[in-house]
Amino acid sequence: MKRILRTALAAAAALAVTLGLGCTAQADQTTDKIKSTLESRMGDANIKSVDKTPIPGLYEVNLGSQIVYTDATGNYVLIGDLVDTRSSKNLTEARLSETNKIDFAKLPFENAVKVVKGNGSRKIAVFSDPNCPYCKQLESTLKSIDNVTVYTFLYPVLSPDSTAKSKSIWCSKDRAMSWEGWMLDRKAPTTAASCDTTAIDKNLKLGHTMNVSGTPTVFLADGRRLPGAVPADRLEKELSTAH
To answer: How much of the chain exceeds pLDDT 70, in percent?
Structure first.
């Protein structure tokens, strides 16, 4: 009797494992098929991953700088944010921030314009274009944020003039003063771009590898990113939780 019981339990355990592996394999087959289908139909799209969402039949497609959604066949793509109405949490933004986390400590801070406010205990890195209106808006927001060190990586992606201004700011005797003078007070930098400006080229290369597709892009000390000119209350909240 005991032998029969042991045999039955072993069989049940094996069946459970088999079923578990079967479910995992089936899920992997679905996501792999979706990835293959979309890659063949979306041209040069770089699909980093395909995962399930909390909604049955809806899958998350991570394109690096963007998340879109699709059905199990890959025949339909939905572009937009997925929001949990119970908590008002933007699930798309949260996932994008999580999947694009960086190692903040490994950023090449020597290639950034450093501005210290208050005791500078909190830290953020910002990829910013000098001709970007939203970057100017963020700079205005930062005026109300205290005790923070801001590392601005000059990221001229909008125009040749952006590159010229970035180089002039970088070659200024006081880079922080030149940067804030332009972004906040519209005092155009006048220093000749005669110094070594390879830092700006390195910033562009770095930004591309980190999927920085727009300015401003803010990185918190815990590696999360905040897209766009976030308002002061949100930035203050995020700074208080980033460690």
So the answer is: 88
Write the CB contacts of 58 (distance below 8 Å, at least 6 apart in sequence): 52, 69, 70, 71, 78
Q: CB-side exposure of 104: number of CA atoms within 13 Å?
A: 17
Residues 113 and 203 in one domain: yes
Cα gap 227→65, rounded to integer Å:
10
What's the domain range around 35? 28-99
* Residues 162 and 202 grouped into a single domain: yes
94 and 109, same structural domain?
no
Most confident range (mean pLDDT) of 90-94, 181-185, 207-211 is: 181-185
The whole-model pTM stands at 0.74
CA-to-CA distance for 68 and 94, rounded, in angstroms?
A: 13
Question: How many structural domains is the chain composed of?
Answer: 2
Summarize pLDDT for 154-169 with one digit per residue, the tens. 999 999 999 999 999 9
Other beta carbons within 10 angstroms of residue 5's beta carbon come to 9
pLDDT at 207 over 90: yes
Instruction: Give one DSSP letter per residue of 103-142, joined into a string.
Output: -GGGS-GGGSEEEEETT--EEEEEEE-TT-HHHHHHHHHH
Contact, 158 vs 132, CB < 8 A?
yes
Average pLDDT over residues 90-116: 91
Six-digit token string for 78: 């939905």
Inform me whether the pLDDT recorded for 24 exceeds 60.
no
Last residue of a domain, one of 99, 126, 141: 99
| Residue 5 lies inside a defined structural domain of this protein | no
- Could you tell me which residues are beta bridge partners of residue 241? none
Q: Which of 99, 130, 159 marks a domain boundary?
A: 99
